[in-house]
UniProtKB/TrEMBL annotation, chain A:
Entry protein name: Ribonuclease
Species annotation: Psylliodes chrysocephalus
Residues involved in a divalent metal cation binding: D82, E83, D190
EC number: 3.1.26.4
Note on cofactor: Manganese or magnesium. Binds 1 divalent metal ion per monomer in the absence of substrate. May bind a second metal ion after substrate binding.
Automatic annotation (TrEMBL), chain B:
GO cellular component: ribonuclease H2 complex
UniProt name for this protein: Uncharacterized protein
InterPro entries associated with the record: RNase_H2_suC
Organism per entry: Psylliodes chrysocephalus
Gene3D superfamilies in the cross-refs: 2.40.128.680
Transmembrane feature ranges: none
Pfam families: RNase_H2_suC (PF08615)
Gene Ontology biological-process annotations: RNA catabolic process
Length: 352, 138
């Protein structure tokens, strides 16, 4: 939601700063950016995308939206949404969207935005550059959802599932485009879960737009393919420029694909685990691959009891052997601890 | 009850001069007793919001915390016991290894509040002061 607020201010570049708001320098940086030329912060090719990614704090989510083409404000548009990096145990998950006027959608076919899964990495990079070049007709946005955010959500008290994280991101992208002035007519979304439920959910939130949610949408609709390419390219480059705050000095080539079955990834998890902290925050701790690896490589960690288990009183059965023990009389008259102290976990440990 | 001795630093008696330590209380128990790379894996990631509330993560779990100052006139100490007692009645010797004046207290995905035992325990010191300080004749 935070992204949406910024768009209302109207300056896209503030977005990035907003994500960094937790640093105390916010105001300073903000004024610096406004003073400096905003153009320097814009992504108009692969290289500037890499700069953007390496400047963001990789333990937090980051958001970028391109300039909204004038034609997208004027004419009814189609908007596609897809994700990249959902399955891997490493790195961010990226949600992407692209939008263009309905009557200019042939440009997508011209750019080879078809069936992104069938494309090689090099080909995707080329298409991404071309999408950036068509900034007069195509706009796009991506959200990088950090691995830390993903596991924090899944391991929170309320257990925010990956599906919920995904939906929130898709909704944020739609809102960002709508608030940026895109004249949305029809939204196409790729889904991994059951499409009907997801479609109903989005329709409830955006009753004004036509919404199509379908499986394999990225190979059916070129606009979703384009979104998929933006997401995938962003994810790949996020991995490439990953810097470890933990001070681990290795390159992405040593991570592997991030898919749990990849032997390079498996080896990475084995070699770069820390016995106390587990893994660097590149890793999604909530994945069973990571959990299993830690069971072998790291110290066991015990968390506080959940509320339910706390309430069940401890078994208070007197064991049969206790009747044969010699007990001193004084023990029986020990004063119980007052509730005030019990609640505060205070007990008397020293005789005065 | 066994006697407990608390002594100042074992090899370095100048622990008074030592910089105050950064003590953090975490809502989990690590089944190990060893050094840990806290700076790189944990402190690096601590973020503070406008209200002074801090957040961090441990093994993917979200933590929320805040610094708790000790009541005035108190000092915190970290004790080390080199020889574990064989029986409950043994005399025990502890050495002061670190001192601290505040604790960074962490909860799992829950902002620290007056409902937390440690906060309440610290409150007791003020109450004890009021209850047990000698009444001066006016």
């Amino acid at each position: 939601m935070q992204n949406v607020k910024i768009l209302e201010i109207g300056t896209i570049e503030i977005l990035k700063i907003f994500d960094k708001k937790k640093t105390s320098k916010t105001r300073q940086v903000l004024s610096e950016v406004i003073d400096n030329k905003m153009d320097s912060q814009k992504i108009h090719c692969l290289e500037t995308l890499q700069n953007f990614i390496s400047e963001t704090d990789n333990s937090e989510n980051a958001f970028y939206i391109s300039d909204i083409p004038e034609v997208c404000k004027e004419f009814p548009c189609i908007l596609g949404i897809d994700e990249a990096g959902r399955g891997p145990v490493l790195g961010p998950m990226v949600y992407g969207t692209t939008f263009c006027p309905i009557n200019e959608q042939m440009i997508l076919v011209k750019l080879d935005c078809a069936d992104s899964k069938a494309l090689t990495e090099e080909k995707r990079d080329v298409i991404f550059n071309n999408i950036c070049k068509e900034s007069k007709s195509i706009g796009w946005a991506v959200e990088l959802i950090s691995p830390n955010y993903i596991c924090n959500s899944m391991l929170s008290r309320t257990k925010h599932s990956l599906n919920k994280v995904s939906m929130d991101s898709a909704v944020a992208l739609i809102k960002a485009a709508a608030n940026g002035g895109v004249n949305i007519e029809h939204i196409f979304v790729d889904t991994v879960g059951p499409p009907e439920k997801y479609q109903d959910y989005l329709k409830g939130l955006f009753p004004k737009f036509k919404i199509t949610v379908s499986k394999k949408a990225d190979s059916i609709y070129p606009i979703v393919s384009a979104a998929s390419i933006c997401a995938k390219v962003t994810r790949d480059h996020a991995i490439k420029v990953w810097k470890f705050p933990e001070g681990i000095d290795i390159t992405y080539k040593e991570f592997g694909s991030g898919y749990p079955a990849d032997p390079i990834t498996k080896n990475f998890l084995k070699r770069h685990s820390d016995p106390v902290f587990g893994f660097p925050q590149l890793v999604r701790f909530s994945w069973s691959t990571a959990v299993n690896a830690l069971e072998e490589e790291a110290y066991h960690v015990e968390w506080e009891q959940t509320e339910d288990s706390k309430k069940t009183p401890p078994a208070n059965n007197t064991s049969i052997t206790s009747f044969f023990k010699i007990t001193s009389k004084e023990k029986g008259v020990q004063k119980p601890v007052n509730e005030f102290f019990a609640q505060r976990c205070l007990s008397r440990n020293v005789e005065l | 009850m066994a006697t407990i001795h608390i002594r100042s630093g074992k090899s370095n008696l100048d622990c008074n001069n030592r910089k105050l330590s950064n003590i953090q209380s975490v809502p989990f128990k690590i089944h190990a007793d060893c050094d840990a790379n806290v700076n790189k894996y944990f402190n690096n990631y601590i973020k503070t919001d406008e209200k002074g509330q801090t957040s961090a993560s441990f093994r993917g779990y979200p933590l929320k915390g805040k610094p708790l100052g000790l009541p005035e006139g108190y000092v915190g100490v970290v004790l080390h016991e080199s020889v574990k007692p064989e029986t409950e009645k043994c005399e025990r010797k502890f050495y002061v290894t670190y001192k601290f004046s505040k604790i960074h207290y962490w909860n799992w995905d829950k902002a620290p509040s007056d409902n937390d035992s440690i906060v309440q325990a610290l409150q007791w010191m003020d109450i004890a002061e009021a209850l047990h300080s000698p009444i001066l004749e006016e």
